[in-house]
Amino acid sequence: MATVYYTAIIEGGAEPGYGVFFPDLPGLASAGETVEEAARNAEEALSLHLAGLVEDGDALPASTPPDRILHDPGIHEVSRMLVRAELPGRSVRLNISMDEGLVAAIDKAAKARDTTRSGFLSEAARKMLGR
Q1: What confidence tens digit (pLDDT) does each residue in 9-21 have?
Q2: Same structural domain for residues 28 and 16?
Q3: Most distant pair of Cα atoms in the chain: their distance
Q4: Residues near 71 by beta carbon (within 8 Å), at least 6 away in sequence
Q5: Which among 4, 6, 10, 14 could bridge 79 via Cys, Cβ 3.0 to 4.6 Å?
Q6: 8 and 39 share a domain?
Q7: Are 43 and 101 contained in the same domain?
Q8: 63 and 121 belong to one structural domain
Q9: Of the spans 8-17, 35-44, 84-93, which averages the highest pLDDT?
Q10: CB within 8 A of 25, min separation 6: which ones?
Q11: What are 97-128's pLDDT values in tens digits?
């Protein structure tokens, strides 16, 4: 897996908590009650967003270094940071054996989550591996 870094801007406002956005990735946002929580959530949001782009076959936008992003006076900027993400590698086809009842339960759970069997098993493996 390749490692990438994108600049995130943490902003505060009149409401409690902090928002996070990525200037290079329009539409990607996250938040947290504390700056630390916002930073952790930004990493998870970035990973999921990039995985979706890769899965859809979309090109990844170039990352702009934090010092090259102009300050927006309309934003109460609290912090800028580089957020790390691992790009998913190419998919590998597997042939595995499982109990048919377990496969049926996986398929039902995958359908309820609007994903595929492979997507469901990949997410379960990531959770078990702490990724």
Answers
A1: 999 977 889 999 9
A2: yes
A3: 59
A4: 77
A5: 10
A6: yes
A7: no
A8: no
A9: 35-44
A10: 6, 46, 49, 61
A11: 999 999 999 999 999 988 889 888 988 998 89
- The more confidently predicted of residues 1 and 53 is 53
Look at the block and give the residue holding tokens 């086809």.
Answer: 93
Interhelix angle 100-112/117-129, rounded to 10 degrees, is: 90
Per the structure, the complete domain to which residue 51 belongs is given by 1-90
Q: How distant is the alpha carbon of residue 92 from its chain centre?
A: 21
Q: Note whether 127 and 113 are same-domain residues.
A: yes
The count of residues in the chain is: 131
Contact predicate 92/24, CB 8 Å: no
Res 131 pLDDT > 70: no
Report the domain count for the chain: 2
Q: Is the pLDDT of residue 91 over 80?
A: no
Looking at the fold, whether 84 and 129 belong to one and the same domain comes out as no
